[in-house]
Amino acid sequence: MDPLGFVSEISGNWSKPPSHIVTFASEETKLIQRSFKEAMTTQVRYFPMEKHQIPMEYLTVGFIGAGKMAESIARGMVASGLLPPHHISTAVHSNLSRHEVFQSFGVNVFSSNEEVVEESDVVIFSVKPQVVKKAITELRSKLTKDKLLVSVAAGITLKDLQEWSGHDRFIRVMPNTPAAVGEGASVMSLGTAASEEDGALVAKLFGSVGKMFKADEKMFDAVTGLSGSGPAYVFLAIEALADGGVAAGLPRELALGLASQTVLGAATMVSKTGKHPGVLKDDVTSPGGTTIAGVHELEKGSFRATLMNAVVAAANRSRELSQS
Ligand SMILES: NC(=O)c1ccc[n+]([C@@H]2O[C@H](COP(=O)([O-])OP(=O)(O)OC[C@H]3O[C@@H](n4cnc5c(N)ncnc54)[C@H](OP(=O)(O)O)[C@@H]3O)[C@@H](O)[C@H]2O)c1
């Protein structure tokens, strides 16, 4: 008899309630457990016998916090075909409009954070940094060792995450806003019990909304100063380039379109050719030409030193905030 039929028969003939049926998890039984739930609406408890990776097609991911970052990542996972939307869940806190937002692309919206955790193999904490401790401690009893935990909260260390959850299979990720358009730059650092396979899984999940890098946690303030705050610096640069275009006689719309596409094109050249940006700059500056005249003005205005100072100032501020 197939295992599902077997348990179905036991639960039908046995005097104990179905919640007393226990299955020991291996990759196979974990999948069967899901079938039980669907077929019998019964509770079958799950005891991990060993740490294992669940195949991607059965993986479930839950977000604690139904905000902008959770939405970006969930949308990316669905749009890239990595996970079907019904394998993703979240719960709405107080802003009820978030319910519709997540349901509009097929994500399960449960009525509590507890349910999200119960249904998820990977739990991503995506609440504001000041709420993380409360959210984790309230869920602590549900955070069983078979679950991989992830936090995207800025400035919250792995040490605190592990202490609050009593769980050291934790991964800290620092994403950035372009994740919303599938071009995020995320950095991750692994907690003490997170395996290389766990890291590879999280890289795959966040890879659906951009690029994932790995770094020691002590670099996270610098990461915040560069990729975390960096989009704002580039927004300023695009606005300023467009203003320059307008000053030189272009209509505003054309100037803005050219400025943003130029930044996108230049960034893509750096990442696709693998050439050093200095080499690419040299390639486009002909002797006595227009571009070197512009570059000369940027150097007179300390363009590069100003950008370097901006990254260092933001990194310092991140350090201050995480210590306060
Ligand atoms: N956005 C970014 O670009 C970015 C970049 C890097 C890192 N992050 C990190 O990502 C995290 C989320 O940021 P966000 O921009 O997505 O913020 P957000 O849009 O404000 O989302 C936070 C969500 O958490 C919900 N929430 C509050 N208390 C909760 C609780 N106890 N249980 C469950 N949900 C609760 C809020 O719901 P209500 O509004 O209904 O209260 C809100 O939907 C932050 O820690 C931030 O540091 C964000």
From TrEMBL:
The keyword Ligase does not apply. Its EC number is 1.5.1.2. Residues 60-155 form the Pyrroline-5-carboxylate reductase catalytic N-terminal domain. It catalyses: L-proline + NADP(+) = (S)-1-pyrroline-5-carboxylate + NADPH + 2 H(+). It comes from the Eukaryota. Keywords: Amino-acid biosynthesis, NADP, Oxidoreductase, Proline biosynthesis. Pathway: Amino-acid biosynthesis; L-proline biosynthesis; L-proline from L-glutamate 5-semialdehyde: step 1/1. Residues 217-321 form the Pyrroline-5-carboxylate reductase dimerisation domain. Belongs to the pyrroline-5-carboxylate reductase family. PANTHER family: PYRROLINE-5-CARBOXYLATE REDUCTASE, PYRROLINE-5-CARBOXYLATE REDUCTASE 3. This is Pyrroline-5-carboxylate reductase. It comes from Brassica rapa subsp. trilocularis. The lineage of its organism: Eukaryota, Viridiplantae, Streptophyta, Embryophyta, Tracheophyta. The gene is A03p007000.1_BraROA.
